[in-house]
């Protein structure tokens, strides 16, 4: 599939496990409860995508643009998001257990109630992000920018 996928719009319950969607343009797509387990989106453009309840377990989102994306209740456990842009993204109650978020930009993102157990945020930009009620046992925030980070339990 790769570069040929340009837009998926208003699709509910999509199942594309282990799909190769590198550099795909999925801007403002609606993919509710979609199953993208093990899929690759490296350098993909998912700006403003609505992926509520999506399964992105083991997904590769290296350097993907998820600015303003809505990933509420999404499963991103064990996903690789290194270098991705998630500015102003909504990840309320998202599962990010053991996810690789090294160098990710989460400026003004909302991760309220998210499961961040064992996630790696080293070098991430979390300025202005909200992690209210997030579970962060053994989470690595070394070298992360945390100015104006909101974290109340």
Describe this entry's structure for a reader.
The chain has a two-stranded parallel ribbon. By secondary structure, the protein is mostly loops. The protein is built from no helices and 2 strands. It starts with 10 loop residues before the first strand and ends in a 121-residue tail after the last strand.
In short:
The protein has 153 residues and is low in regular secondary structure. The protein contains no helices and two strands.
Task: Write a concise keyword list for the protein shown above.
globular; 153 residues; little secondary structure; two-stranded parallel ribbon; disordered N terminus; 2 strands
The helical percent reads under 10%
Count of DSSP strands: 2
What integer is the average pLDDT? 92
- Proportion of beta-strand residues: under 5%
Shape: globular
